[in-house]
Amino acid sequence: MSRIAYVNGQYIPHANAGVHIEDRGYQFADGVYEVCEVARGNIMDMTRHLNRLDRSLSELRIGWPMNRKALQSVIAEVVRRNRVYNGMVYLQVTRGVAKRDHVFPAANTPPSIVITAKRTDPVMFAARAAKGVKVITVPENRWERVDIKSIGLLPNVMARQLAKEQGAQEAWFIDPDGTVKEGAATNAWIVTMDGVLVTRQAETGILRGITRTTIFDVAKKLGLTIEERGFSVEEAKRAREVFMTAATTVVMPIVAIDGESVANGHPGTIALSLREAFFDIAEKTPSC
Q1: Of 27, 8, 153, 5, whose CA–CA distance to 93 is shortest?
Q2: 149 is catalytic
Q3: What sign does the CA torsion over 23, 24, 29, 30 have?
Q4: Rounded distance between C-alpha atoms, residue 103 and residue 87, angstroms
């Protein structure tokens, strides 16, 4: 079956999908995006994802491409047309198409919107979680407004590529004082020796991950305590467990940092229990 994309009001074959060469997303990275997990035929945490989309658009002064209810329907339709039972749906909104100029185009320029969906293999992700992943650390070199889910991700791309070249699956950005910020595409967590979950505050300096937010609900259900504070790379290396969260990976145990094993080098029970409980607690929107 051929994949289907939604581009500016039309459902078209994915292979033929495209935007104008003067789309501001293409020329300036002038846009935002969201990625939702699709699990067992459900779009996960859609309300929180669209709330964050609203915030990102507002911060960049980009209008909604359509009303929220219509957007929810289109997202579900893209998932349905692509027959995605387990996978992800990607949504991108830019300031639109206009003659290249750094200043905003005319106020009546319509935003551009692209939505795609693809299948992923839950068995593969489960096997990866059972084994755990490795991370490396890199100096923070991004703009300060990482709280906006901007499509300007070149530092993240370079960091993730460096991780791949070093046999790891993620890269953590590190402040000059040695404090962990977040991953190239994930939020970072540790578990202290007394079982407390720790993740950096999300008011500034990191993206407030949707899966990160839902983990607060999961932890409460499981009777676990969370502290929002910074932690250093050294504290992470000494932690009982380390893991990362994202819509595409949910909860993924981390077993090595910069080549040094975390704890016994195997996924921890707390991370795996959070992963196991996530589906039942997260918001689920049927895709059909």
Answers
A1: 8
A2: yes
A3: negative
A4: 37
